[in-house]
Design a protein that fits this description.
187 residues, alpha+beta, Aminopeptidase, 8-stranded mixed beta sheet, 5 helices, 8 strands
Length: 187
């Protein structure tokens, strides 16, 4: 499978949830989920806002949908029925699609946190990555203080490759360290 002629699949469904590209009209549900989860997301996700309008959220969804179709980034919602339970994706921070490398990012709504959903989503993402996508290398980054995120990565075969010291700012504006995990196709 070459990435040059690759048509990115738009969704992946399990018995519990569907991972799918954002669509026009998803803004209201994105707004509801992020605002309701703000306190839960705030320590780790600098993009989370306590107040975010439906119009602002709709713009985010439409931009994500366009970037998906253009193969610029592959942002996905985690849907349980009509509920947005979180977000994830195959992000191209590691180079263009042709590099066959992607970074997986994830957030889980406060209502669904602590129930193992993130772990099940990561398992589905790995399965999908190596069955329908051209990915050869998947990367997972997390704040070194985010122990739940580290456990999820290790549980699904991601190896700690290193720690970037004081490479990013946390949500309080202080420098933080980042663990970098990776998993290779066939490994």
């Amino acid at each position: 499978m070459t990435s040059e002629f690759f048509l990115a699949p738009l969704s992946y469904t399990t018995s519990e949830f569907t991972l799918r590209a954002y669509e026009p009209g998803d803004g209201a549900e994105l707004q509801r989920s992020v605002v309701a989860s703000y306190e839960h997301l705030r320590p780790w996700m600098s993009w989370a806002k306590a107040e975010q309008s439906v119009a602002e959220s709709e713009k985010i969804c439409r931009r994500a949908a366009a970037r998906y179709l253009l193969h610029e980034d592959f942002t996905l919602g985690i849907w349980i029925g009509d509920e947005l339970a979180g977000g994830t994706g195959y992000h191209l921070s590691q180079g263009p699609l042709s590099s066959c490398n992607a970074e997986i990012g994830m957030w889980i709504s406060a209502a669904r946190a602590g129930q193992g959903l993130g772990s099940r989503v990561l398992a589905a993402l790995v399965d999908w990555a190596y069955s329908e996508w051209p990915w050869q290398r998947l990367v997972w980054r997390c704040d070194t203080r985010n122990h739940a995120s580290m456990r999820v990565a290790e549980k699904h075969g991601f190896s700690l490759e290193g720690t970037f010291r004081r490479d990013m700012f946390d949500t309080a504006g202080e420098r933080r360290d980042t663990h970098v995990f990776a998993r290779l196709r066939g490994a």
